[in-house]
Structure formats: structure tokens, C-alpha cells
Amino acid sequence: MSTVIKDGTVVTADLTYKADVKIEGGRIVEIGPDLSGDEVLDAAGCYVMPGGIDPHVHLEMPFMGTYSADDFESGTRAGLAGGTTMVVDFCLPDPGQSLLDALKRWDNKSTRANCDYSFHMSVTWWGEQVFNEMKTVVEEKGINTFKHFMAYKGALMVNDDEMFASFQRCAALGALPLVHAENGDVVAAMQAKLMDEGNNGPEGHAYSRPASVEGEATNRAIIIADMAGAPLYVVHTSCEQAHEAIRRARQNGMRVYGEPLIQHLILDESEYANKDWDHAARRVMSPPFRDRKHQDSLWAGLAAGSLQVVATDHCAFTTQQKRTGLGDFRKIPNGTGGLEDRMPLLWTHGVVTGRLTMNEFVAVTSTNIAKILNVYPRKGAILVGADADIVVWDPKRTKTISAKSQQSSIDYNVFEGKEVTGLPRFTLTRGVVAIEEGAVKTREGHGKFVSREPFAAVNKALSTWKEITAPRKVERSGIPASGV
Ligand code: URP
Ligand code: ZN
Ligand code: ZN
Ligand code: ZN
Prior knowledge:
Elements: E1 2-6, E2 9-11, E3 16-18, E4 20-24, E5 27-32, E6 39-42, E7 47-50, E8 52-57, E9 62-63, E10 66-67, H1 72-81, E11 84-91, H2 99-109, E12 116-122, H3 128-140, E13 145-149, H4 160-173, E14 176-180, H5 184-196, H6 203-207, H7 211-228, E15 232-234, H8 240-251, E16 256-258, H9 262-266, H10 277-282, H11 292-304, H12 319-322, H13 342-351, H14 358-372, E17 390-400, E18 419-429, E19 432-436, E20 439-440
Parallel strand pairs: 1-6, 2-7, 8-11, 11-12, 12-13, 13-14, 14-15, 15-16
Antiparallel strand pairs: 1-4, 2-3, 4-5, 7-17, 9-10, 17-18, 18-19, 19-20
Helix pairs in contact: 3-4, 4-7, 7-8
This protein binds N-(aminocarbonyl)-beta-alanine (URP) and zinc ion (ZN) (3 copies).
């Protein structure tokens, strides 16, 4: 059985040309003029692009005393509806828990995925067990990225000595460390002060996490990575200071990557102040939305190449879950959705406005991500032999974003009412049509785990275990990754 995508214009990260694309056995087998096949998909007037890769999602994640509401089924269905054909989720061991035990939970829940997926592993505590298991994770489990939280003090946050040791371990294993860069100590102090002063509403969340706490932590993580001889990927880069630190490091020859989210590119701080409680709480995420100056910096970074990818950090909570934080903003589960809307919004606000070329759009939504995560050209490419994860993009198709018609299982959408121009005509996951003209034809369980090989190791400094001085005592709480 073969499928041909006919009469479209192929758009990749560096080329735009007219061609048909033939698919067999889930892979691209031929690209050229006048191809024929058993099934024909009409792509006239459309762009044929590599399906989107979202490098940052949290599906059914235990967090702040609850679980994020979209699971691997609804989350990947939402992704496909918006042209995303692969997601990378964060495996999150509780502090004190075995990384390999946590991974079993992730293996179980991901079997329902509608599209391919991969995992990052999180380092939420440090000890000889973590050190040893990191090697197994890289060499046997197909995971080459490790996330570190510099925020969420008392829950997921790691200290600098732990981060330094873990970064060195990453370098020795050929893995890429990731950071959530916010100064968790300063955030905790500012949160306590705001609460003392009676500012317990959701806007207090934003006030407690100004751009400086992100700028400082980004800079610190970069310097620690440099000392450890490791590259670095900074998740949800949302402000100018963080972007500047990344740009400077790259100019100095470091491999540092920055990941703006579609939410930070489109929404600003006015979402918090003088809004009803639910409205603001639904938009509580870390880092919070910022002002225009920061947004302009992020857009410029994407065009200039100093920021490389656009993600969602999709971590959706219902209004009911958000209301856990009534009376104390520190208890509002942090996170927003965006999986279905990332590609249409970036096209509308990036390509249609002229801020990004179509090729840059493909680079930041797919190809750059595949390269950074070491799955290129199996993913992120329109090339013979690549997986047929393809979006046939109709630049004329429009819609108004609304919770009423979305795939996500939550009861609202932070982009409610926004118009988009540019949507998938077809989304294909390994050659199977999952979305056709807005109709959802996904197959639960079709998605497969994508194993990612380690990079060439750049530093062997910490290949045997060494105790760090005065290690932090970690006790298992028994509650899944709760706290603020
Ligand atoms: O607020 C956010 N970003 N929630 C998801 C977890 C994280 O920090 O990425
Ligand atoms: Zn984060
Ligand atoms: Zn509102
Ligand atoms: Zn996240």
C-alpha cells in the first residue's frame, strides 16, 4: 500500500520546491514530479512540511499534588490536530526515587499515544544511584537528555553542586543537560513576602517570578555547564536577559540552546492583573507571561538563530484543579496548554506577519529540534528514508481557537477567541492519515517510543562516582512531586 501526496510545495528548513511525496511502510520512499500510488492525497495549494516536534510536554504528570489533565491519548491527539507528529515528555522521578522505576510508569502511560514520542529524564535529586542509573538511561533506554529544575524549592529543585555533578555526568555520557532556569530560592522568598502582605491572588505568582530570577539562573546554568564541559538546553526561555545570556554563550563558542514557548510569544503580563481569579489562575505557569519588550526579544532571537526552537511546555490543568490555589497562589498548579495551537499560532503571528520565513518556521517547529535531540533525519525531514511524519499545510484554512472545539480535555483555552490562518489539511504520522480537513482519524496506541542515541562524549571528568561535599538530605515524601 503506497500513498502519494500530490501537487503540493515541499517546504523544509532550507528548501522550497514543487514535488510529490510517495510513502510506503511508514517512510518516505520517493520525492519527485508526477508520482503515482494506491492512495492520493491532494496537496494543491498546500505546503508539505515535516510534522511538528514538540520537545517539551507534560502528559498525565504528577505535579503539585495532582496530575496534569491531558494524558498521552488526548495530548497527542491535540498535537496531531495542530500538525505536531512527535512529542517529548519529561519522566519525573520523585526526589529519592529510582530513575528506572519512574521510567516504568512513563512506559505504561505512553502506550496510548496517537503519535511517536520520546522522553527526557529529570534529575530531581543526587546520589550514587542517580549517577549509576544515568548511564543505564543513556545506554539502554534511548534517552540522551536530562532535565534539572533550578526552581520549585523543596520539591523538584536541585542545588548548584548537584547540578554541576550531574552536568559533568551528562558530558561524560554524551547526554545533553536541560534546565528550568529560575532562581528558586529568590522565588520562594518573594512568594513568602507577597503572602505576608496579603497578596494571595494569581497575579502574585507573576510578581514573585520577575525576569531577573530567570536571567540570573540562565546565566548561572550556562557558566556551570561551561565549567562542566557540557552543552546546555534552556527550556521555556521567556525573557530578554535569558536570551542575552544564551546569545553571549553561543558567541563564545558554547553549544547552548534556547526554547521560547508559543505562550510567551503571544500572551503578555496583562493576562494576570485586574482579571477575574479563574482567568488569571488558568494562565499561571512558570515562567509567567511577560511584557512586549521580552516578546520582541524572543521573536528577534528566532529570526536571528540565537533561539532555536518553539515548544509548548503543554501542562494542562482544569479550572477545578487551578482552584486548589484559591487563597494561596503558591498552590495553583503551574502550567498551560498549547499543543494543538503552537503551529497555527506561530504561522499566523510569525510567517503571515513576515517575522519568520516558511523555512525558519519548519526549522523552529521541527528540524532544529530533531537535530538538537539527535533524531534527525529520521524525524524533522522530508527526505527519502525519513519517517513519513508530515503535515500538509493549508495556508488559507482559518479558525477561531475555542475550548468548545479543541482536542485537549480541559475546560478552557488560554488562546480562546484568537483567529488563526494556516492549519493542517492532512497530518500524517508514519504514513497514516490522522487528521483530514479538520476531521480527527487518530488511532490510539499508534505512537511508538523513539529511542535517541547519545552524542559523542565531550568530557570524561566524572566517569567514576565521587561524593559531593555535604550532600543535601533527600527524604521520599510518598506524595508525587508535590509542593510549590
Ligand atoms: O509552569 C510550568 N511550566 N509547568 C510545567 C512544569 C515546568 O516547570 O516545566
Ligand atoms: Zn519548567
Ligand atoms: Zn476572563
Ligand atoms: Zn515543563
